[in-house]
Amino acid sequence: MKYCLVSRADPLCCSLNEGLSDGEADTFAKEVLSKIYNYHPDMNPLDMDDGGILVRYNHPAVNVVLNEVVQENWSEIDRRYLEALATDEVLITPLGHNVFDDFGKKALFGRCFMFMDAQNPKVEKIVRKSI
Known about the structure:
The protein is α+β, with helices and mostly antiparallel strands. It has one domain. The protein contains 3 helices and 8 strands; from the N terminus they run E-E-H-E-E-E-H-E-E-H-E. The chain has helices spanning 22-38, 67-80, 102-119; strands at residues 3-6, 12-16, 43-47, 53-57, 61-65, 92-93, 96-97, 125-128. The strands form 2 sheets. It has a 6-stranded antiparallel β-sheet with strand order 3-4-5-2-1-8. Helix 1 crosses helix 3. The longest helix has 18 residues, at 102-119. It is globular, with a radius of gyration of 15 Å. The two termini are 13 Å apart.
């Protein structure tokens, strides 16, 4: 990853090409987020060593579900995780259609932050790779 844009909420990062100005980076990140949000929001969650989850999308963006945040909000996540599905959305998991274990519930929680960011995108920080 050459550059990274960090959004608010759960850290949402967008991988960028080298050589983009700050304005071009801002535009690119918002376009990537729009593509994820306005089309099919495919996600591929991965366990992290610290108990968090990295949620990858079908465009160059990821968000991190911090384990501490999950633990602080677990009762609400466990009670309301199905509200994280888009209207008429069906996600196929190893357990069945729209059936989620704790890992899946955490991934849906993280994806909610991406949805929130996408409704009013704001680039909080541009991080450039140092030499």
